[in-house]
Amino acid sequence: MNFRFNLCLLCIYFVNVECIMWTLKPNTQKCLKEELQGNVPVIGEFEVSEAMGQKVDCVVRDSKGHILYQREDITKGKLTFNTESYDTYEICFISRVSQNVRGIGQDVSLVTKHGVETKNYEVLGEAAQLKPIEKELKRLEDLSNEIVQDFALMRKREEEMRDTNESTNSRVLYFSVFSMCCLLGLATWQVLYLRRYFKAKKLIE
Q: What's the rounded mean pLDDT across residues 36-64?
């Protein structure tokens, strides 16, 4: 019983659903960023409060500036896109207010789902003629696979960061040794130069 309860808590913890609300000030933009793996479907539902003479645009792009979704003058709707590769993706809401209009803040709400949560298991279950328990097991299996992939990616990134740190440490060590050798060589040259100078001036024997 405890194992099943812990498994449910773990699955609930990793549900990829995010909901956020904020007030978008006039002639400003708000961007929400998230790192995602490649070939991951993303679905979002947004709603923007209306204001006379004000418009809000929605743009989704990656870190390279490629636009995956764009829509102008939004009020309520959905956005969908697929990630192309592992990258940081941002969903931006941009306020546009006419110069002759005194702008006010607009309330924006956004609910996003990605990965397993974008699948409609009711439709998949009916197509495959699955029982309710089988549909739930299928959803948990997909969710478990996604969690394993996320952990594998985290482990890979940790290994890359460790390799980078080790490489940086070795380079710093070599640079420090090189700097010490340069300083010792410079100090030796100064001593010899001053010794010859003082001997030339007959200040020392």
A: 91
